[in-house]
Predict the structure.
Amino acid sequence: MNPTELYSTLDRELASFKEAKTFKYEVPLESEQGGEVMVEGHKVVMLASNNYLGLSNHPRIKAAAHRGLDEWGYGMASVRFLCGTEPIHVELEQRIARFVGCESAILHSSCFAANEAFFTALLANDFGQTDYQDVIYSDQLNHASIIDGVRLARAVAKQTVSRLYRNGDVNHLREMLEEDRDKNYRIKIIATDGVFSMEGLLAPLAELRSLATEHNALLFVDESHATGALGKTGRGAVEELGVFGQVDVITGTFGKALGGASGGFIAGSSPLIEFLRQKSRPYTFSNTMPPSVVVASIEAITMIEEDPSIVNQLRENTNYFRRRIVELGFKIIEGRHPIVPVMLGEAALAQDMSRELLGEGVYVKGLWYPVVPKGEARLRAQISAAHTHEDLDHTLEAFDKVGRRLGVI
Ligand SMILES: Cc1ncc(COP(=O)(O)O)c(C=O)c1O
């Protein structure tokens, strides 16, 4: 294929996405992120962002970002180990490690990069052994970045085996671990999201902890949708489910509850983190986090530590929305996370409902096949501490109106 043929092939492919209604359109927001935003000239309630604590435009976070800019400059123009480390980077690593209950942490430019880095950095080393295999047991619904991380590890470290267990199914995982008992794997890793982002469901972390201990495996948990959003004091699904301080490796993002800008981290034992500092390629070969984001992320942690009532506000908003939307007659996936999937079935219905809700002042996104199984199209409502009671009531009225109009309720 020459470039001209390639580009026309790509054009045809794009047209087929549009025909299959899988093409992803972007709607520019005409305001900062918040409980309410401006879209197409109208004020609408934002129900599609990961801004769980409403920190994206919080005055304290904005002031901290300004401070970071003024005191530490705009950018570092360097990776960490050349000249890209300021005291604030070290401070953020210490603060986030303590916050999620681990000894140490290492920053990455995103959690995607962190997850992609982790498995290969660890498993592409023989540590002086010649004949061995490593194994990763991965939840079937893990985030794309874990999937890609595992794929990369298998491509680079050919002795790596990966096995998928059914979502949250501890018995399935136990069977696999039993089957593998005699295989003498060198390193075993059980990898899971703390919260699965299409369902808002929590991983069974206490049971996974027990299995990991019984089988000498490392427990790896991606807390991207949980840090700041779950647990009495916002320390994530690990706190919510009683395993705070007991997880071997936690990854997460600064791009959701903790201010919503960008950046990710891996937290774990000191030797592990120091080893990753030497071996993680995205850490070694990609730019450091900018000072404004670092200082604002530290401020986000400080705000939650000083006054966890912000997390409670999120929980109250979530409980209120979950209760009221069911009372209206909608079917949701039950749970306790601010991700509330409103189940609709067919993709066309989810598309129509999302569009009509926007007309009624509510911005909510639909998910359909292939992102979720066929026939399980849904709207994914995401609740924030930034939502006022008026925002939530307006949203519920709009769901009621559009739901009746479209015959969903
Ligand atoms: C579970 C999970 N892991 C990782 C990521 C990626 O995080 P980041 O945006 O920091 O790359 C996301 C973001 O959607 C996520 O939901």
Observations:
- The domain at 19-48+308-405 is CATH 3.90.1150.10 (Aspartate Aminotransferase, domain 1).
- The chain has two domains: 19-48+308-405, 59-306.
